[in-house]
Amino acid sequence: MITLPESIRVFERGWLSSNNVLLVDDTCAALVDTGYATHAPQTVALVLQSLGARPLDLIVNTHLHSDHCGGNALLQSAWPCRTAIPASEADAVRHWDETRLTFRATGQRCERFTFTETISPGAQLRLGALDWQVLGAPGHDPHSLMLYCEDERILISADALWENGFGVIFPELEGESGFAEEQAVLEAIAKLDVRLVIPGHGSPFTNVEQALERAFSRVAWLRADPARNAKNALKVLIVFKLLEVRAMSFNTLLQMLDDAAAMHAAAAMLKPRGEWSTLVHTIVEELAAKTGPLEIDGERVVARQA
């Protein structure tokens, strides 16, 4: 049975939005990660339902992928809350540099938000009447962070460790190192005394050792053939977009491969440009097989009803 301190509440979301972690004590009500833009009104409603008349004081973003910070802007408009982001992303957010931010590159969206402070590995945070150590978690994203509470042996792992894997290793799509960093983060987690992981996606879990074994195995599998990471990235990004818009034509999906840099890079690792139409059809067919997340309706791809 999963037991959390009374000061922590987890809003488990679907795969379009990351989980939100609400930590409340006498001095601060803080939300770690805010989900995707499509679900921002629901995120505000969940926080409001939990806090009542009390305001949200602080947003903490583990990293700035759109499914983790897409609710920032609406939450900031609902409450005059402080917002802490990874320090290495400060300039990109301050100038809203869409080349450095990942939203356009992944074919996703995020309403512009601001920040009041930054956090870096080694920082200490007091949230939910608990002390949290900020840990670096590059691999999935070079700027990503985790939060670790030694007293309660709880790790908020974002996308560095899920019960069955971890997030796409995006740096490898651009020819940057990511597998080695993910391996190092998993090794660092293995050295911590962790009884409970609150992941960025999926339910909180206590079978930490088994999750780490699966994650180590997956890193090795991806490193053996980087095209596997590229194919997984393309699948994830296509499904994500379909969960948002619900239906798209094959031609629109194909256009996204040209317009979204991360999708373009993943496709280029798999097939020459002239074969991308076949590539998209093959991937969608795999995603539509059996009880997969997508369905094919003539020349359209449709997200399967949950």
What does this structure look like?
The protein is α/β, with parallel strands linked by helices and 306 residues long. It has helices at residues 40-51, 66-69, 72-78, 90-94, 179-191, 208-224, 227-245, 250-259, 261-270, 276-288, and strands at residues 8-11, 20-24, 29-32, 58-60, 82-86, 117-119, 124-127, 130-136, 145-149, 154-158, 196-199, 247-249, 294-297, 300-303. It has two domains: 8-224, Metallo-beta-lactamase, Chain A (4-Layer Sandwich); 227-303. The protein has a six-stranded mixed β-sheet, with helices on one face. It has a five-stranded mixed β-sheet with strand order 7-8-9-10-11, with no helix packed on it. A hairpin with an 8-residue loop joins strand 1 and strand 2 (20-24). The radius of gyration is 19 Å and the shape is globular.
Summary tags:
alpha/beta, 6-stranded mixed sheet, 306 residues, globular, 2 domains, Metallo-beta-lactamase, Chain A, 5-stranded mixed sheet, single chain
